[in-house]
Automatic annotation (TrEMBL):
CDD domains: PSAT_like. It is found in: Cytoplasm. It comes from Nitrogeniibacter mangrovi. L-glutamate binds at R42. GO terms for biological process: L-serine biosynthetic process; pyridoxine biosynthetic process. It comes from the Bacteria. This is Phosphoserine aminotransferase. The modification N6-(pyridoxal phosphate)lysine is found at K201. Keywords: Amino-acid biosynthesis, Aminotransferase, Cytoplasm, Pyridoxal phosphate, Pyridoxine biosynthesis, Serine biosynthesis, Transferase. Pyridoxal 5'-phosphate binds at W102, T152, D177, Q200, N242, T243.
Length: 365
């Protein structure tokens, strides 16, 4: 068996110790004689797995007591519709800050349910920056303001938790798609009304969607909202309104235990800063590669980079894969390469990538 350094944007690399533990427990979980996959979601065994996962997630992220954590399905793309269906209430519209492909998709979907006001967009820059908060133009009475905290495709990340009090709207709920940077650094959950994301980058396998929602935002779902997507019903049923993705929750739980053993989000934040700085510094000092994102908004999770001579892209991908560095192809809308370096990517993987990039540049430059 040989494992490679996997730079996939998602589903993404998981900690090897988590995969080993899951393999050990595959046929017989803790003497129950069954796999977690074969358990009733209402059994005491699965309830204990669920309770531990929820408690660890809450502790890791410092989720305050007046927020509910929901484990749902449908991915972040479904949440683009589920959020307005649940939060609009008696308001007509919602505000969106557009910083790349994913927030563009989010506001497009929301238009099915709400009047959408684009409070700010970085489109004119080619989505290489985040518009300054002072320049956000909010509508008069939106139900919420939406951001994507990390644009997985463009490589643009909010390095801070926006405080809407700073722009005179302390009571406006801030909603964030955190699919690709959840648990990557310490954060202030209380700045947000609702946080959602797919699990398949920093948390676990695809199929699990997390939602962290402030309790006062529950209970306003549109009458046509499917019951399985009504946050209040899901919260009341402790994420068991329908059968939850049990195995994905189990793996997420193992990842949470791994994160705690690593020193939690504090340690992750330091490690992710160091990993991404290493790669950006190399790209910036090289005359062979480049990254065009505004330095203050560069993602620590997804590092897109271009070869200045794009005729070398195919050779780069072929040779890097042969060297055990896989899934480096950039998204087709951006081109070039993208190294996704989530929590589970060790610094050794980033060092190996830089070593390969240096060698490739020397040979082809
Ligand atoms: N938002 C962001 C920021 C993402 O990175 C992704 C997945 N790459 C999505 C939304 C879509 O997630 P899903 O496929 O889980 O619906």
């Amino acid at each position: 068996m040989s494992r490679v350094f996997n730079f996939s944007a998602g589903p993404a690399a998981l900690p090897e110790s988590v995969l080993r533990r899951a393999a050990e427990e595959m046929l017989d979980w803790h003497g129950t004689g069954v796999s977690v996959m074969e358990m009733s979601h209402r059994s005491a065994a699965f309830q204990s797995i669920y309770q531990q996962a929820e408690a660890d997630f809450r502790e890791l992220l410092g989720v305050p007591a007046n927020y509910r954590i929901l484990f749902m399905q449908g991915g972040a793309i479904a949440e683009n519709a589920i959020v307005p269906m649940n939060l609009l209430g008696d308001k007509r519209g919602a505000d969106y800050v557009v910083t790349g492909s994913w927030s563009t998709k989010s506001q497009q979907e929301a238009r099915k349910f709400a009047e959408v006001n684009i409070a700010a967009t970085a489109e004119a820059s080619g989505f290489t920056t985040i518009p300054a908060m002072e320049r956000w133009r909010l509508s008069d009475d939106p139900a919420y303001l939406f951001i994507c905290s990390n644009e997985t495709i463009g490589g643009v990340e909010f390095a801070f938790d926006p405080d809407l009090g700073d722009i005179g709207r302390p009571d406006l709920p801030l909603v964030a798609d955190m699919s690709s940077n959840i648990l990557s650094r310490p954060m202030d959950v209380s700045r947000y009304g609702l946080i959602f994301g797919g699990a398949q980058k920093n948390i676990g396998p695809a199929g699990l969607t997390f939602v962290i929602v402030r309790e006062d935002l529950l209970g306003k779902a549109h009458k046509d909202c499917p019951s399985a997507f009504d946050y209040a019903l899901v919260a009341e049923a402790e994420s068991m309104y329908n059968t939850p993705p049990t195995y994905a929750i189990y793996i997420a739980g193992l990842v949470f235990q791994w994160l705690r053993a690593q020193g939690g989000v504090e340690a992750m934040g330091q490690r992710n800063a160091a990993k991404s700085a290493l790669l950006y510094n190399y790209v910036d000092t090289s005359d062979f590669y480049e990254n065009r994102i505004d330095r203050a908004c560069r993602s620590r999770m997804n590092v897109p980079f271009l070869l200045k001579d794009d005729r070398l892209n195919a050779a780069f991908l072929e040779e890097s894969a042969a060297a055990g560095l896989v899934q480096l192809k950039g998204h087709k809308s951006v081109g070039g390469m993208r190294a996704s370096i989530y929590n589970a990517m060790p610094i050794e993987g980033v060092e190996a990538l830089i070593g390969f990039m240096q060698d490739f540049a020397k040979r082809k430059g």
